[in-house]
């Protein structure tokens, strides 16, 4: 049976079989980042990754980081401006099994909060020219808050050597997955509920005499119109995928350049919907029968608004894809004080 390294060598001759090597532009390591890495103490001399291990530190630094088969290293400190995972040697127990370095997949952008309820219309007791006064309209609901956008920090992966139990791993053999997709934008909040219409006044009672109705009663007034629902919150834009920077030696770069990388942008959130309208105000009561004067009809309830609300929030754009660059060093030793 051919060895894994023999298969890997054959795969490099067969582009249809081999993993695609990324075309990674080169850059330079900013002096402040280099100084921060050098000054940072070792998190541990050896960091074993088995199952899923989570790290909240800005700089995770070790002489060696070792991955068990199928292990995940998850970065949770996403409020830092940048994160560094640094090791003089990164070791993989089984390079055929997928190993993952990822940002915390549970991280989300904040949702927009709902808008406030609109003010209720005032009651309007009494009558004018014998007809009950109309109720005052309810006010519109308040606008909702927009969903938020959350950006990922830059991620520096420092590796001097990449090995398995047999020694240096050949390019194209390691199944390393880097999952740094942008964070989805937050959904906009729902617009505030409209205020209720005010109660209308009652019609004036008719004036009767011994022989007839001297002045008929008045109808009840019309209730106040319901307030429209508030405008929905704007959708939050999707966050950009993380910018990944490999800080490596040339041999380690050749291995990392075949890693599977997902740093596409996050999806935009959903725009918030408009709020519900309030309730129409009740109509006033008609005048009751009084002697020769007949009872009159009650007033109509207020109307519902048309349209029912002030509309959806605005849509937003998906996030942009992050970049991948490489910093090729003769040795990462100086970053470890070597």
Automatic annotation (TrEMBL):
Residues 109-148, 187-237, 264-300 are annotated as: Disordered. The keyword Membrane does not apply. Keywords: Signal. The keyword DNA-binding does not apply. It comes from the Bacteria. Coiled coil: none annotated. Residues 1-20 form the signal peptide. Residues 135-144, 187-204, 216-237, 266-286 have a biased composition (Gly residues). This is Collagen-like protein. It comes from Bradyrhizobium betae.
């Amino acid at each position: 049976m051919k060895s894994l390294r023999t298969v890997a060598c054959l795969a490099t001759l067969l582009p249809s079989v081999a993993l695609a090597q990324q075309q990674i532009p080169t850059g330079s390591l900013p002096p402040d980042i280099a100084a921060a890495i050098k000054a940072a103490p070792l998190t541990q001399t050896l960091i074993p990754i088995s199952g899923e291990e989570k790290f909240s530190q800005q700089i995770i630094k070790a002489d060696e980081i070792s991955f068990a088969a199928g292990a995940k290293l998850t970065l949770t400190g996403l409020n830092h401006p940048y994160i560094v995972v640094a090791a003089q040697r990164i070791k993989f127990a089984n390079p055929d099994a997928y190993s993952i370095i990822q940002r915390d997949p549970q991280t989300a952008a904040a949702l927009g909060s709902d808008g406030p309820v609109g003010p209720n219309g005032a009651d309007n007791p009494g009558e004018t020219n014998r007809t009950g006064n109309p109720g005052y309209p309810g006010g519109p609901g308040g606008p909702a808050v927009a969903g938020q956008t959350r950006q990922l920090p830059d991620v520096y992966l420092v590796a001097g050597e990449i090995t398995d139990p047999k020694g240096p791993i050949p390019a194209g053999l390691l199944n390393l997955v880097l999952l740094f997709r942008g964070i989805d934008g937050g959904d906009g909040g729902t617009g505030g509920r409209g205020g209720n219409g005010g109660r209308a006044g009652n019609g004036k009672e008719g004036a009767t005499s011994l022989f007839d109705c001297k002045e008929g009663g008045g109808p009840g007034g019309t209730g106040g119109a319901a307030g429209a629902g508030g405008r929905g919150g704007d959708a939050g834009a999707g966050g950009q995928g993380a910018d990944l920077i490999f800080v490596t030696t040339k041999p380690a770069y050749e291995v990392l350049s075949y890693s599977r990388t997902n740093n596409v942008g996050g999806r935009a959130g959903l725009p918030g919907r408009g709020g519900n309208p309030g309730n129409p105000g009740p109509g006033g009561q008609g005048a009751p029968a009084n002697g020769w004067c007949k009872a009159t009809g009650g007033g109509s309830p207020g109307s519902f608004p048309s349209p029912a609300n002030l509309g959806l929030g605005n849509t937003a754009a998906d996030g942009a894809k992050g970049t991948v660059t490489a910093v090729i060093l003769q040795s990462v030793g100086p970053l470890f004080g070597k």
